[in-house]
Amino acid sequence: MAATLEVRSLRAHFFTKAGVVKAVDDVSFSIGEGQVLGLVGESVSGKSVTGFSILGLVDPPGRVVGGEILFKGRDLTKLSEEEWRRVRGRDIAMIFQDPMMTLNPVLRIDTQMIETVLAHEKVSEKAARARAREALVQVGIPSPDERLRAYPHQFSGGMRQRVAIAIALLHRPALIIADEPTTALDVTIQGQILYEVQKLCREMGTSLIWITHDLAVVAGLADEICVMYAGRIVEKGPVDQVLDAPLHPYTKGLIGSVPSRNVRGQKLAQIPGMTPSLLSLPPGCAFRARCPRADAACLAEPALTRPRPGREIRCFHPHLVDEVV
């Protein structure tokens, strides 16, 4: 299967007065045509900055300082701003967590969607309007003709997010980066959106990077999963294998803290401590202070290893004996 995107040793740092924040530090992964990759982790793990880096949207004082981002063989880190304008929205689209990062509050929905179509394709305004209407129907917005004439403030937060998702689907891009796009949606609409993006991936070969902290969504959506912690991928592999038999203690802790996995009457499991500041990471393994398996060996930086076919991990003490082969 041809790779739509290959990220190699990506590094994105923020140069602040307090010091250098290594938000993304040596991240590598690839995603093929029609595949869904889940990027999961706690807040400040670097997953959103990874998505922004792929689209060239890291603002000062941050910047991509190393690595390659190959989209269909083309290194995106070498693009000019004019070349980026042709790529964003048409070939690669992003769905932001906050829909108001996508929508202009003073323009009607039809104006914004039609302009998005006309910016990349030479079609009539009538055809562009029809495409916009179809996209609203796709994401479950009722009365699409009426909604096209509305302004963003006339929508609820969840409805605005559905419009933002519809805009991302307009050009049927080769790659969609979704940054927790269903957080504000109810379960029914969330299921509908997930069905539509899966259908798009199957039928059009669109690749999807789904950034989230919701393991339940990833379990039913993704083909592969990358677990991030403190700017690095600590575990990677097929989603069923990773969630059924996690190797990294951090992945095991994330899965164990899901409320549905706890027994009634018992306290919820949790990972002790807090994510360390990226300004002052501890030496060696960044998860060491919170890890129940840590020892003196963890004072060194763990290298990326492949203990199982298709699995990658950064850990000196993985849960290898717990995995069912």
TrEMBL record:
MF annotations from Gene Ontology: ATP binding; ATP hydrolysis activity
BP GO terms, sorted: peptide transport; transmembrane transport
Keywords on record: ATP-binding, Cell membrane, Membrane, Nucleotide-binding, Transport
Domain ABC transporter: 7-255
Pfam families: ABC_tran, oligo_HPY
Main localization (coarse): membrane
Similarity comment text for this entry: Belongs to the ABC transporter superfamily.
PANTHER family per the UniProt record, alphabetical: DIPEPTIDE TRANSPORT ATP-BINDING PROTEIN DPPD, OLIGOPEPTIDE TRANSPORT ATP-BINDING PROTEIN APPD
NCBIfam families xrefs: oligo_HPY
Name this protein carries in UniProt: ABC transporter ATP-binding protein
Naturally occurring in which organism (per UniProt): Elioraea tepida
